[in-house]
Specification:
alpha/beta; Rossmann fold; Dna Ligase, domain 1; D-amino Acid Aminotransferase, Chain A, domain 1; 3 domains; four-stranded parallel beta sheet
Length: 282
Amino acid sequence: MNSARRLRIATCRPLPEVDPDEDLLLDAFRDAGIAAEMVAWQHPDAWRAPTPTLVRSTWDYIHALEDFDAWIDRAAAAAPLWNPPEVLRWSLRKRYLLELEARGVPVTPTVLLPRGDARTLSAVAAERGWRDVVVKPEVGAASFETHRLQAGPRESDALCARLVAERDVLVQPYLPSVEGHGERALVWVDGVFTHAVRKTPRFAGGVEQVSDALPISAAELATGTAALAGFGDEMLYARVDVAPGTDGVPVVMELELVEPSLFLLQSPQALARLVAAVARRL
């Protein structure tokens, strides 16, 4: 195959957990006549060739953010990178929720505690009228250091203080709707929302469970569309995780633009759309 039909898929090795999309993508690209290979982003010699890169399962970047930031520059300098660098960088830090909120997008209420902040979890929760809260790193993936806590007990303050001593932290109210209706991951590929799945709540040490493909409601579509407004045509994929807020309106819990699972096993149509979009770009 000529170089125009080659593709690198950025991953990490070892993977912290199985990526169910990996073999599906490799097989689908092969069937489309594209020579795709999984390449760990940490591999120093792998990113010099001018081969386009699709970012997928780079799930350990949260432990080496500066190195990953430098890798974005290195990969993008060699060949096109999808998603593009400006999209990746914007999504690395979950303070984007505050930016979305300022734009009028419904989001989970969020307080950012910068590293070293002296405020206690009890004080922050009392100020917002929260009791049942979620505390998690601003830079995180999967359930890394994500905790559901009751504000007030000293052990909750101590856990939050430990996290804040190490990194920037987000404090949010726990949304009861994630247990009944469930958190919905809305998958977007090349300009179109393709499907959703229901995810069970997941905290540190837990295992995520997901449903088969589900339709996207009109309310979810409105929130997802608002969250993605303003991104350029170069963005290839996205995942908008939503759940009903206290008023029933779906709110953005996370906007995943770096390395989200796209649940391609649940939607052959989404897989085909992603492969076709990459083929056009190649």
